[in-house]
## 1
Amino acid sequence: MNILAFDTSTEYCSVALWRAGEVLVREVVAGQGHSELLLPMVDEILAEAGLALTQLDGIAFGSGPGSFTGLRIACGVAQGLALGADLPVLGICTLEALAEAAAVSAAQERVVAALDARMGEIYHAAYHRDDNAWQAVSAPSLCLPQDAPPLSGTGWVVCGNGFAVYAEQLQACYRAQIASIAAPHQFPKTPHAREIASLAAPRFLQGLGTDAAEAAPLYIRNKVALKETERDWADR
């Protein structure tokens, strides 16, 4: 099975090609250049693999949460490519992709992920691996770091740049439930297409891919900017 995956939900732009468990990857710090970089990166990775778009079995993308513009770019490109090649599409939650990366690096099955959502907030989710599949213990949500949803038990592994930006607040929320977050370089901070591909592959095998027209971003947040009065309050 050949799965193309990409993520543009953060300042990074990543592309991965999953081929029977082997993965080719591309990643670059894109800033605001995702729309110019993504398709050339797709072309490059397909050329390296010697594959045409029509030889793929599906296309996966980081559906969010994350940058509004980045999520729209990933979803739009996935839809365009899939429609042209008559391929199924899957959106993979970026927080679940982070959990997958953390579990691989730490060999753990309980992961809490937090991405910096700007405006003093985080995107948050917690997962437990059961029968080789992630189950959401705390569904993806938007919250203040000091109001992060409670978790039960101990032994939680952390990931995501939210733990780097809001380490003090999140440490206060979870205390002894999670591993130390004093060294943020030791955990995955942003989603990557590599994990999106590995999560999507078994789902495509199960026939869970959808029509391209049904693909949609997972925004969570409904507004992208603060009013002047809100910005003044947030800065206090």
## 2
Amino acid sequence: MSEITLSLSYYNDFEHLHQHLEQWKAYKDKIEFQIIDDGSKEKLVDKIDIDLFLELNISIYRINQDIKWNIPGVRNLGAVACTTKWILFCDMDQYFHERDINKIINKINTKQIDDNKYYSFSRSGRERTAGTLMMTKDNFWKCGAYDEDLRGNYGYNDPLLRKQLEAIDVQEETLIDVYCQQFHADCLLDRKGMEKNKRKMHRKIKKLPKKEIKILDFNWEKSF
């Protein structure tokens, strides 16, 4: 039985989704897959190759509202749906080769992975992954999950989650021998409102550890 769910955040990017699926074929029997569709213009279930999704045993969840910059909501829904001990949150423009998934699995099986840490990964030209992270589902909820108050503007979702984890003494480790690949250079994003999220983050850090969790304040469904 798999101990890891790969949770992919998806939004209007069907082209790159197929590149993910091609990678997933190589390790389809080793981990669980889920795609969280963040209110895309077209329903993913209307575009997919059903036979391929059945072959890979992928679960699809859809947020039925196109909420601007709803990354925290997407990640929280992924954790709600996750049935394994570990959840590997993956950004849409990043992916893993089979050899690196095998390294992660081997580290878990040989107790090189610590339940009381969370993990980032190496990537070419960068110190570590930012939003592509792995942690136990228990620690995700204990730290307070992603803060959905930061949706609506770009940025600071992952830095705040890191601070929440540190506040419950769950420290980060970067697996330097596990590489996260990049489909292309990070795209230019509309970062308008970024400073607003930054100010929110600093206010919230002062109140850690988090006392309550408010999540999934939107309509969603399991669509596959």
